[in-house]
Amino acid sequence: MTIAPPSDQLTAGATERRRPARPNGRAPGRTRIGYVFVSLYALLALAFGVVPSLYAVVLAFTNADGGFAGLGNFTKVVGDFRFWPAVLHVTAYLVIWLIGLVVFVVGLALLVHAVRLRWASTALRFIYYLPGALAGASSVLLWLFVLDPTASPVSGLLRALGFDSFVAVIQPGNLPAIFAIIAFWTGAGGWIVIMYGALNNISTEVIEAAQVDGASAVQIALRIQLPLLRKWIAYMGVMSLAAGTQLFVEPQLLSQASNAVVPNDYSLNQLAYQYAFQQNDFNGAAAISLILLVVALLLSWVFVTRGGLFEKE
Questions:
Q1: How confident is the model at residue 145 (pLDDT cuts 50, 70, 90)?
Q2: pLDDT for res 8
Q3: Phi and psi angles of residue 12, each rounded to the nearest 5 degrees, phi first
Q4: CB of 289 within 8 A of CB of 272?
């Protein structure tokens, strides 16, 4: 004797049979839209990233006539008397900037996160982020006034440090610190907001358990929050390193504003610009760009491996 299933089971079974299969549990429409967005990004990355990079590789290993040059372009630019001073300038700037980012961005993010008043925390995040609203060139133009003791709102501080003129402030020995301050003022606010969001993702149960065990705010920051921020700090280092090696706008504008007190080949990007548009040597400029790319990739690899950026929890 066969027992008929309940009517609700029959209805459910019919519904399951009529329901179209969804790949990976996602609606087909959403999948197609996702492919559209990814394809647009892929086309832009191919047109303005991959193709120019491959063209630079071709230029770097060929001469002006299109013949194979081997490492000739690289030995030429490395032997240029302007190359190693530019390397030292960019290196000093990166060291100051990256240390400042790690110390002050993480410290300020912890400070904002520790503020319990919602309106105060929101106001601080807005204030930190506000300088980033200015474009890079506009930021440098603003700093031209800040660095001039005759017009600066902090002229008293500049004079107290022994600077009585704009030329005295922008002497080449002072430039790595100046460029690091400008870059920090422009970009640190966005990273503070990102670090603040990462801190909000830390489980409150973990923090509360540490507080119950008698941990102070400093101990919680050093033993819980900072280790959990390690990947975000590594990510900040990679992105900041990629941007920092491309130093160009700041020294270029200061060079024009100071009547060449700041040399127009101060950074490697400026030197590549000189090769391409002053000496008409695009092959040498491409060689410098590849050297920058390789160095940035190697340093980024250090950040990724030491920071465990792609490690699974």
A1: confident
A2: 47
A3: -65, -40
A4: yes
CA distance 232 to 106: 10
Quick one: tokens of 174? 């002072």
Q: Burial code of 72-95, b = ≥16 C-beta within 10 A, e = fewer? A: bbbebbeebebbebbbebbebbbe
**Tokens for 107?**
């410290």
Answer for the pair 112, 189: CB distance below 8 angstroms, yes or no.
no
Which residues have CB under 8 Å from 22's CB, separation 6+? Answer: 28
Q: Which residues of 105-134 are buried (b: 16+ CB within 10 A; e: fewer)?
A: bbebbbebbeeeeeeebeebbeebeebbee
Tokens of 86: 């530019």
Task: Look at residue 187 in the predicted model and tell me its pLDDT.
Answer: 80
| Separation CA 112–CA 126 (nearest Å) | 11
Question: What is the model's pLDDT at position 206?
Answer: 86
24, two tokens? 């990976």
Tell me the C-alpha to C-alpha distance, in Å, between residue 248 and each of 154, 178, 228: 26, 14, 34
Residue 246's CB is within 10 A of a number of other CB atoms, namely 15
- DSSP line for 26-79: --HHHHHHHHHHHHHHHHHHIIIIIHHHHHHHHHHTB-TTS-B-TTHHHHHHHT
Asked whether the predicted pLDDT for residue 276 surpasses 90, the reply is yes
Task: Identify the DSSP state of 161.
Answer: T
Which residues on neighbouring strands pair with residue 84, listed in sequence order?
Answer: none
Question: What's the pTM?
Answer: 0.80
The number of beta carbons lying within 10 Å of the beta carbon of residue 307 is 19
Asked whether 248 and 239 are in contact (CB, 8 A), the reply is: no
Instruction: Name which residue leads in pLDDT, 311 or 108.
Output: 108
How far apart (Å, rounded) are the C-alpha atoms in residues 9 and 269? 71
The top-scoring range by mean pLDDT among 78-82, 293-297, 298-302 is 78-82
